[in-house]
Amino acid sequence: MLNSDQIVYLNGEFVALADARISVLDRGFIYGDGVYEVIPIYARTPFRMPQHLKRLRYSLDGIRLANPYTEEEWDALICELAAKQPFDDQALYLQITRGVAKRDHAFPQGVAPTVFMMSNPLPLPSREQVDKGVAVVTADDNRWQRCDLKTTSLLGNVLMRQLAVDGGAVETVMFRDGFLTEASSSNVLIVKGGKVIAPPKDNLILPGITYDATLEVARDAGVPLDVRKVTRAEAFAADEMWLSSSTKEVLAITRIDGAPFGAGTPGPVFRRVWQAFQASKPKVVAETF
Ligand code: PDD
Q1: pLDDT tens profile 32-61
Q2: How far is the CA of 286 from the centre of ligand 1 (A)?
Q3: Are β-strands 114-121 and 90-97 bridged in parallel, bridged antiparallel, or unpaired?
Q4: Are 13 and 254 in contact (CB under 8 A)?
Q5: Alpha carbon distance, N-terminus to C-terminus of the chain
Q6: Beta pairing class for 179-183 and 171-176
Q7: How far is the CA of 97 from the centre of ligand 1 (A)?
Q8: Residue 259, Cβ density class (10 Å: 0-12 exposed, 13-18 middle, ≥19 buried)
Q9: Would the pTM of this model clear 0.70, i.e. be above it?
């Protein structure tokens, strides 16, 4: 259900969702010509904001769109929007498009970008999903070759995600040329012989902020790591397989393509890293009076 009173940000103003309007000629609508970020906010504290803003800059550079705000301005606007929401844990979505112009594939000149932000309750996995793990399906990765850019042109990912829904699963794990890439809206990591193995952050996957956070907490917990390409056979023969994303945190996969995977329950390395991940999150500061 849409909450039309929800306060969102559009082009310099905080307005009710019902009053946030853009032109049908916006290049985001016509071409998917824009980039976005999803920043998790725990207890009203953004998680890894500098990393998200750095990736935003990378995506903007990648599509040759000037960053409309400085890092300090983004920080202030994001915190102001978050403060206007009546819930503490949030998933803040922001997107920047190349603006409104007569339809022509070539970049328009002298056009202001469209900047939109909204913040919704953070849809974290349920306790049952954490305890029992989740189901995925697999597919060949047929997306473009710049999956490192967080662009709003998400049709490839949308079609992949629907395959998961159709198969009663939460995600579609993809392979390109026989190698593991990522899932439709998450990164994928495996565990073999106690070691976490993660596909490299090349042009074929999104450089996930949660992927980095997961590898960092795993390393700090003394878990050996290896960042390298993973074959399909290796992925299927892994002891554990995990999803990571801003809204899933780290989640164990326990069914693949309708069959139990690994031990059929979240593995020991997952449980250790999940705990460490929880401990690394910002917490509500206890009132001291
Ligand atoms: N999705 N890979 C893809 C294709 C993604 O869309 C995402 C995030 C990730 C994980 O990135 P991060 O850890 O920074 O969230 C990997 C977001 C949550 C979304 O589109 O809603």
Answers
A1: 999 999 999 999 999 999 999 999 999 999
A2: 31
A3: antiparallel
A4: no
A5: 39
A6: antiparallel
A7: 18
A8: exposed
A9: yes
In the chain, count H helices and then E strands.
8, 15
The Å distance, Cα 109 to ligand 1 centre, comes to 31
- Ligand 1 within 6 A of 157 CB? yes
- What is the phi-psi region of residue 64: left when phi exceeds 0, alpha when psi lies from -120 to 50, beta otherwise? left
Amino acid letter for position 13: E
Strands 171-176 and 134-140 turn out to be parallel
Question: Which ligand 1 atom is at minimum distance from the Cα of 55?
Answer: 14
What CA–CA distances, in Å, run from 80 to 12, 75, 117, 284? 12, 9, 11, 18
Angle made by CA atoms 23, 26, 30, in degrees to the nearest 5: 120
**Rounded to whole angstroms, what are the CA distances from 192 to 2, 21, 195, 243, 247?**
43, 50, 5, 15, 25
Residue where the block lists tokens 């073999």: 192
pLDDT tens for 259-278 read 999 999 999 999 999 999 99
